[in-house]
Amino acid sequence: MIRGIRGATTVDHDQQESIVNATFSLLEDMIEKNNIDPEDTASVFISTTDDINSVFPAKALRKLEGWEYVPVMCMSEIPVKDALPFCIRVMVHVNTPKKQKEIQHVYHHEAVKLRPDLVGANRKVDL
């Protein structure tokens, strides 16, 4: 079964190092919490709000050992009025026997506001 694993983070401003570091930290956390093997990963989609345009956040994925052959694509979010600014969203498509409720979606920094419903005993959301 292919499952989608969601994650999101924010940065304070459009600066290459901040974007790559925040994305790297988010990906590491998503991988660890869901025990993701790159060999089981079909693809990774990364989107950003339109205020992020200095670097492709996918650069962070290429820093992870073993992930060099995983297809990754960056795209822009639709410009929704009053949307969370400086936001990076990640969707990892992974082959896993886990049930939907066993998947651990990960939200860092201000992105915790995106899915407050996932805050709970078995859904640790990072600040």
UniProtKB/TrEMBL annotation:
What is the main EC category here? isomerase
Q: Which domain of life is it from?
A: Bacteria
| Entry-linked InterPro entries | Chorismate_mutase_AroH (IPR008243), RutC-like_sf (IPR035959)
What this protein catalyses is: chorismate = prephenate
* EC number(s) per entry: 5.4.99.5
Record GO terms (molecular function): chorismate mutase activity
**What keywords are assigned to this protein?**
Amino-acid biosynthesis, Aromatic amino acid biosynthesis, Isomerase
Q: Pfam families in the record, alphabetically?
A: CM_1
Name of the molecule in the record: chorismate mutase
